[in-house]
Every structure is written in structure tokens, then in C-alpha cells.
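Handoff note, outgoing to incoming analyst
You'll be picking up this chain. Sequence as last confirmed:
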Amino acid sequence: MKESPKTFKNGDQVVLPPYGVGIVSGTTTKTVAGSDHKYYEVEFPNGTSRAFVPVHAPQEAGLRPALTEDEVQAVLERLQHGRITLPKQWAARHRKVTDILTSGDPYQIATLASELRRWDLERGLPDLDRQAYRRALRLLAGEISAVLHITPPEARAMIDAGEEDELN
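Most recent structure output, in case you need it:
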């Protein structure tokens, strides 16, 4: 059975990978290949970026509701205790890490960040894994900051504090 698409309304806070957190500013109709289609118009905080996501299938584009304040704590828990098995072979690991980062799923991204941090503490991270770790933290800090109405550095401080708690 096909799942019906999630509907969004003006003002909804959403996430569109890889752009990050945005606000649904309305819907618009555009003509594509001779037929009219409705799109959600999503604006991003910098004010210069805008995306159009098909109303009939937002999940195909990866559009999802942003975390709620209640869900932030669960994501922070995943950052501390999340476990994932990553392939030892670089190419397979890179593919899996890229898939997780582009999925936009904050729970998977937090679990990935937790595992990469664990690897870093145990044996250090190669450059591409270190870049992936930093990207994961940036994505999480961006969403957490938007949801909690704090700055990204404040969100990053929350993340770092959670990591420090686990080490103690």
C-alpha cells in the first residue's frame, strides 16, 4: 500500500537535505512539460535560497518536518550512545557515510557522528571520515539551533557538552 504524502502548511519548519532547515512559505503552481504542478515553496534562513518541492510527493525529495523540541533530547542521546557498524574498507564506508549524510535523518546522522567520534578516539580518523564527522555535527547543530531558537554555536556547545559527558 502506498503511503499518502505528508502535507505542510505555511510557516511549517521543515528540513530539505542537503539544504537544511527552512520554512514553508506557501505553494505555487508551475508549468512543467506542458502540465501544471503544485509545489511547496521552501525558504531558507539566509534569505537568498528557495526550493520548490512537489506537493504530491514531498518525501521523494526528502522533505520532512523539522525535529520538535522533545525530539532534540533523543537526538542528543544518540550522539552519546549511538552505535552503527561501518565497513572497514574505505570505499564501502564512504558510500554508507554519504548515504546517511544525504538522507537527512537526524537520528541516523547522530548515530553516525557517535560512531565516527568513537573511531577518532580509538585510532584517529582519516581525512574524509573527519570531514564527514564535521559535516554531521554541522547538520545537527543547524537543525537543533533552528528548533530551539538558539545560534548554531550554542547548539554545537550543547553537542560538545553531551560528548564530554559520555567521556566522564
